[in-house]
Write a structure and sequence with these properties.
The protein contains 10 helices and 6 strands. It folds into 2 domains: 105 residues, Leucine-rich Repeat Variant (Alpha Horseshoe), CATH 1.25.10.10; 126 residues, Yope Regulator, Chain: A (2-Layer Sandwich). Helices cover 44% and strands 20% of the residues.
Protein backbone atom coordinates (compact mmCIF):
# COMPACT_ATOMS: atom_id res chain seq x y z
CA UNK A 1 0.00 0.00 0.00
CA UNK A 2 1.22 3.50 -0.77
CA UNK A 3 2.41 5.64 2.12
CA UNK A 4 0.46 8.66 3.26
CA UNK A 5 2.52 11.22 1.34
CA UNK A 6 2.11 9.25 -1.90
CA UNK A 7 -1.64 9.03 -1.34
CA UNK A 8 -1.89 12.78 -0.71
CA UNK A 9 0.07 13.42 -3.91
CA UNK A 10 -2.50 11.29 -5.76
CA UNK A 11 -5.25 13.69 -4.65
CA UNK A 12 -3.90 16.10 -7.28
CA UNK A 13 -4.88 13.79 -10.16
CA UNK A 14 -8.57 13.24 -10.93
CA UNK A 15 -7.80 9.70 -12.13
CA UNK A 16 -6.34 8.60 -8.77
CA UNK A 17 -8.21 10.96 -6.40
CA UNK A 18 -11.13 8.72 -5.38
CA UNK A 19 -8.97 5.70 -4.56
CA UNK A 20 -6.54 7.90 -2.62
CA UNK A 21 -9.37 9.46 -0.59
CA UNK A 22 -10.71 6.01 0.32
CA UNK A 23 -7.24 4.80 1.35
CA UNK A 24 -6.61 7.87 3.51
CA UNK A 25 -9.96 7.45 5.24
CA UNK A 26 -9.09 3.81 5.97
CA UNK A 27 -5.67 4.87 7.29
CA UNK A 28 -7.32 7.01 9.96
CA UNK A 29 -5.35 8.89 12.62
CA UNK A 30 -1.86 8.62 11.04
CA UNK A 31 -3.14 10.44 7.95
CA UNK A 32 -4.32 13.52 9.84
CA UNK A 33 -1.07 15.55 10.26
CA UNK A 34 -0.07 15.17 6.58
CA UNK A 35 -3.63 16.04 5.52
CA UNK A 36 -3.48 19.21 7.60
CA UNK A 37 -0.28 20.12 5.78
CA UNK A 38 -2.02 19.36 2.48
CA UNK A 39 -4.48 22.19 3.21
CA UNK A 40 -1.59 24.43 2.11
CA UNK A 41 -1.01 22.58 -1.19
CA UNK A 42 -0.61 24.71 -4.30
CA UNK A 43 -3.30 22.64 -6.05
CA UNK A 44 -6.90 23.39 -5.17
CA UNK A 45 -8.11 19.82 -5.75
CA UNK A 46 -5.62 18.51 -3.17
CA UNK A 47 -6.62 21.20 -0.65
CA UNK A 48 -10.35 20.53 -1.14
CA UNK A 49 -9.89 16.76 -0.89
CA UNK A 50 -7.78 17.12 2.26
CA UNK A 51 -10.52 19.19 3.91
CA UNK A 52 -13.15 16.62 2.95
CA UNK A 53 -11.11 13.70 4.30
CA UNK A 54 -10.34 15.52 7.55
CA UNK A 55 -14.07 15.98 8.00
CA UNK A 56 -14.64 12.28 7.38
CA UNK A 57 -11.99 11.42 9.96
CA UNK A 58 -13.50 13.75 12.57
CA UNK A 59 -10.09 15.40 12.99
CA UNK A 60 -10.53 17.86 15.87
CA UNK A 61 -6.89 18.92 15.65
CA UNK A 62 -7.60 20.23 12.13
CA UNK A 63 -10.27 22.70 13.27
CA UNK A 64 -8.02 25.82 13.37
CA UNK A 65 -6.58 25.07 9.92
CA UNK A 66 -10.03 24.36 8.47
CA UNK A 67 -11.24 27.68 9.83
CA UNK A 68 -8.35 29.33 8.02
CA UNK A 69 -9.48 27.40 4.94
CA UNK A 70 -12.64 29.53 4.93
CA UNK A 71 -10.44 32.32 3.56
CA UNK A 72 -9.65 30.16 0.51
CA UNK A 73 -12.48 30.53 -2.04
CA UNK A 74 -11.45 27.33 -3.83
CA UNK A 75 -11.94 25.06 -0.79
CA UNK A 76 -14.39 27.09 1.29
CA UNK A 77 -17.36 24.75 0.79
CA UNK A 78 -15.23 21.72 1.71
CA UNK A 79 -13.91 23.45 4.82
CA UNK A 80 -17.43 24.40 5.92
CA UNK A 81 -18.69 20.83 5.55
CA UNK A 82 -15.66 19.43 7.37
CA UNK A 83 -16.18 21.85 10.26
CA UNK A 84 -19.86 20.92 10.47
CA UNK A 85 -19.02 17.23 10.63
CA UNK A 86 -16.23 17.56 13.17
CA UNK A 87 -17.88 20.04 15.53
CA UNK A 88 -21.64 19.60 15.15
CA UNK A 89 -21.83 23.40 14.82
CA UNK A 90 -22.83 25.39 11.75
CA UNK A 91 -21.69 28.96 11.21
CA UNK A 92 -21.64 28.55 7.45
CA UNK A 93 -18.88 30.50 5.71
CA UNK A 94 -18.67 33.11 8.50
CA UNK A 95 -14.96 33.11 9.35
CA UNK A 96 -15.34 35.55 12.24
CA UNK A 97 -18.10 33.47 13.84
CA UNK A 98 -15.98 30.30 13.67
CA UNK A 99 -13.01 32.16 15.15
CA UNK A 100 -15.10 33.49 18.04
CA UNK A 101 -16.43 30.01 18.69
CA UNK A 102 -12.91 28.58 18.69
CA UNK A 103 -11.54 31.34 20.92
CA UNK A 104 -14.06 30.54 23.67
CA UNK A 105 -13.10 26.86 23.67
CA UNK A 106 -15.49 25.57 21.04
CA UNK A 107 -13.01 22.96 19.83
CA UNK A 108 -13.76 20.88 22.92
CA UNK A 109 -17.50 20.45 22.31
CA UNK A 110 -19.86 18.48 20.10
CA UNK A 111 -17.03 16.71 18.26
CA UNK A 112 -17.61 13.96 15.74
CA UNK A 113 -21.26 14.56 14.88
CA UNK A 114 -22.14 11.52 12.74
CA UNK A 115 -24.78 11.19 10.06
CA UNK A 116 -28.08 10.06 11.60
CA UNK A 117 -29.65 8.56 8.48
CA UNK A 118 -30.13 4.79 8.81
CA UNK A 119 -31.57 3.94 5.40
CA UNK A 120 -30.94 5.25 1.91
CA UNK A 121 -34.44 6.76 1.89
CA UNK A 122 -33.83 8.59 5.18
CA UNK A 123 -30.44 9.74 3.95
CA UNK A 124 -31.96 11.28 0.82
CA UNK A 125 -34.85 12.78 2.78
CA UNK A 126 -32.39 14.54 5.10
CA UNK A 127 -30.29 15.70 2.14
CA UNK A 128 -33.17 17.40 0.30
CA UNK A 129 -34.96 18.73 3.40
CA UNK A 130 -35.18 22.52 3.31
CA UNK A 131 -33.85 22.73 -0.26
CA UNK A 132 -35.53 23.22 -3.64
CA UNK A 133 -34.19 19.86 -4.83
CA UNK A 134 -36.68 17.03 -5.43
CA UNK A 135 -35.82 13.31 -5.33
CA UNK A 136 -37.25 10.21 -6.99
CA UNK A 137 -36.16 6.64 -6.29
CA UNK A 138 -34.98 4.90 -9.43
CA UNK A 139 -33.01 1.67 -9.91
CA UNK A 140 -30.14 1.40 -7.43
CA UNK A 141 -30.41 4.97 -6.23
CA UNK A 142 -32.21 8.28 -6.51
CA UNK A 143 -32.51 10.95 -9.17
CA UNK A 144 -32.33 14.44 -7.69
CA UNK A 145 -33.65 17.30 -9.82
CA UNK A 146 -31.78 20.55 -9.18
CA UNK A 147 -33.41 23.82 -10.37
CA UNK A 148 -30.92 26.19 -12.03
CA UNK A 149 -32.82 29.34 -12.91
CA UNK A 150 -34.78 28.61 -16.07
CA UNK A 151 -32.91 25.32 -16.49
CA UNK A 152 -32.52 22.19 -14.40
CA UNK A 153 -30.11 19.30 -14.02
CA UNK A 154 -30.83 15.72 -12.92
CA UNK A 155 -28.18 14.14 -10.68
CA UNK A 156 -28.17 10.45 -9.79
CA UNK A 157 -27.01 9.17 -6.40
CA UNK A 158 -26.14 5.46 -6.63
CA UNK A 159 -25.96 3.69 -3.25
CA UNK A 160 -24.98 0.22 -4.54
CA UNK A 161 -21.45 0.76 -5.84
CA UNK A 162 -18.34 -0.67 -4.16
CA UNK A 163 -14.64 -0.16 -4.78
CA UNK A 164 -12.19 -2.96 -5.58
CA UNK A 165 -11.77 -3.69 -1.86
CA UNK A 166 -15.51 -3.97 -1.28
CA UNK A 167 -15.90 -0.61 0.46
CA UNK A 168 -19.44 0.77 -0.09
CA UNK A 169 -19.48 3.95 -2.16
CA UNK A 170 -22.00 6.66 -2.91
CA UNK A 171 -21.51 7.53 -6.57
CA UNK A 172 -22.94 10.88 -7.65
CA UNK A 173 -23.16 11.67 -11.36
CA UNK A 174 -25.04 13.66 -13.97
CA UNK A 175 -25.38 13.15 -17.70
CA UNK A 176 -24.14 15.98 -19.91
CA UNK A 177 -24.70 14.87 -23.51
CA UNK A 178 -23.20 12.66 -26.24
CA UNK A 179 -19.46 12.06 -26.24
CA UNK A 180 -17.69 12.38 -29.56
CA UNK A 181 -14.01 11.85 -30.26
CA UNK A 182 -13.49 15.47 -31.26
CA UNK A 183 -14.45 16.55 -27.72
CA UNK A 184 -12.34 14.03 -25.75
CA UNK A 185 -9.24 16.19 -25.43
CA UNK A 186 -11.33 19.24 -24.58
CA UNK A 187 -13.15 17.30 -21.82
CA UNK A 188 -9.90 16.02 -20.32
CA UNK A 189 -8.54 19.54 -20.21
CA UNK A 190 -11.62 20.64 -18.24
CA UNK A 191 -10.80 18.12 -15.51
CA UNK A 192 -7.68 19.95 -14.40
CA UNK A 193 -9.87 22.98 -13.66
CA UNK A 194 -12.28 21.07 -11.41
CA UNK A 195 -11.68 21.09 -7.65
CA UNK A 196 -13.91 18.05 -7.14
CA UNK A 197 -15.53 15.50 -9.42
CA UNK A 198 -14.37 14.62 -12.92
CA UNK A 199 -15.68 14.33 -16.47
CA UNK A 200 -15.91 10.73 -17.68
CA UNK A 201 -17.36 8.79 -20.59
CA UNK A 202 -19.95 6.04 -20.14
CA UNK A 203 -22.63 4.36 -22.22
CA UNK A 204 -25.94 6.23 -22.26
CA UNK A 205 -28.74 4.41 -24.08
CA UNK A 206 -26.11 2.32 -25.85
CA UNK A 207 -24.03 5.28 -27.00
CA UNK A 208 -21.00 6.97 -25.38
CA UNK A 209 -21.92 10.02 -23.33
CA UNK A 210 -20.19 12.51 -21.08
CA UNK A 211 -20.96 12.48 -17.35
CA UNK A 212 -19.58 14.38 -14.39
CA UNK A 213 -19.02 12.04 -11.47
CA UNK A 214 -18.05 12.40 -7.81
CA UNK A 215 -17.44 9.45 -5.46
CA UNK A 216 -18.07 9.52 -1.71
CA UNK A 217 -17.34 6.81 0.84
CA UNK A 218 -20.82 5.74 1.98
CA UNK A 219 -19.95 5.17 5.63
CA UNK A 220 -18.39 8.62 6.08
CA UNK A 221 -20.80 10.59 3.87
CA UNK A 222 -23.44 12.86 5.40
CA UNK A 223 -26.66 14.19 3.86
CA UNK A 224 -25.12 17.68 3.74
CA UNK A 225 -21.99 16.37 2.04
CA UNK A 226 -24.17 14.63 -0.55
CA UNK A 227 -26.19 17.77 -1.20
CA UNK A 228 -23.04 19.86 -1.59
CA UNK A 229 -21.80 17.33 -4.16
CA UNK A 230 -25.16 17.20 -5.96
CA UNK A 231 -25.40 20.98 -6.32
CA UNK A 232 -21.78 21.35 -7.38
CA UNK A 233 -22.07 18.60 -10.00
CA UNK A 234 -25.43 19.94 -11.21
CA UNK A 235 -23.93 23.36 -11.93
CA UNK A 236 -20.92 21.89 -13.72
CA UNK A 237 -23.03 19.36 -15.60
CA UNK A 238 -25.46 22.00 -16.82
CA UNK A 239 -22.58 24.17 -18.02
CA UNK A 240 -21.05 21.23 -19.88
CA UNK A 241 -24.39 20.24 -21.40
CA UNK A 242 -25.02 23.80 -22.58
CA UNK A 243 -21.52 23.95 -24.12
CA UNK A 244 -21.94 20.61 -25.88
CA UNK A 245 -25.57 20.64 -27.04
CA UNK A 246 -27.16 24.05 -26.25
CA UNK A 247 -30.06 21.94 -24.90
CA UNK A 248 -31.45 21.19 -21.44
CA UNK A 249 -32.31 17.49 -21.63
CA UNK A 250 -30.55 16.25 -18.50
Amino acid sequence: MANVDELIDRLKNFRTRSAAKNALLEMGEPAIPPLIRALKSRQASARWSAASILGGLGAKQAIPDLIEGLRDAEIRSGAVEALRRITGEDFGEDYDAWKRWLDIGGGETKAGAPATAQSDADFIAQAVYGTDVSAEEKGHGYVLRVPLGDRHQDVTANFRAKDSDGIPLLVVYTRCGPATAKHYEWALRQNVKMSAGAIAVTDIDGKPGFVIVDVLVRDSATPQLLMDSVKRIARKGDQLEAALTKADEH
